[in-house]
Write a structure and sequence with these properties.
Low-confidence stretches: none
Radius of gyration: 15 Å
Distance between the termini: 56 Å
Structural class: alpha+beta
Strand content: 15-25%
Shape: globular
Number of strands: 3
Helix content: 25-40%
Mean pLDDT: 88
Strand order of the largest sheet: 1-2-3
Number of helices: 4
CATH architecture: 2-Layer Sandwich
């Protein structure tokens, strides 16, 4: 059986729009906006950072695309040192988060 490589086709405009929406929400959180829900865990001295984004806009993207968009956005809003501390960038829909038992609680 031949072995091949998968080549994804995706809408670069969609990726850019989602990235910009994340950047905007990180810079100016809107308490009246239901999604995206952004959670950042860890980040203390010597601790890794885990990023979780719950957003139904992810529905048509795979896990790798979601993670890449999250990291691209995080690079725009954080210092290079903080970006290097990220060990997990997970994007999921509300339904996926519920199945995993994850909830984000507001810290405002």
């Amino acid at each position: 059986m031949p072995i091949g490589r998968l080549h994804k086709s995706y809408d670069e405009g969609l990726r850019q729009r989602l990235k910009q929406s994340l950047v905007d929400e990180w810079r100016n959180p809107h308490s009246d906006t239901l999604q995206p829900l952004i959670a950042e865990e860890g980040g203390g001295p010597g601790q890794p950072i885990h990023l979780y984004i719950i957003w139904d806009e992810w529905a048509y993207l795979d896990a790798q695309d979601r993670s890449e968009i999250i990291m691209d956005a995080y690079q725009e809003v954080s210092s290079p040192e903080k970006v290097l501390e990220v060990t997990l960038a997970m994007g999921m829909t509300r339904e996926e988060a519920e199945r995993m038992g994850l909830r984000i609680e507001s810290v405002e």
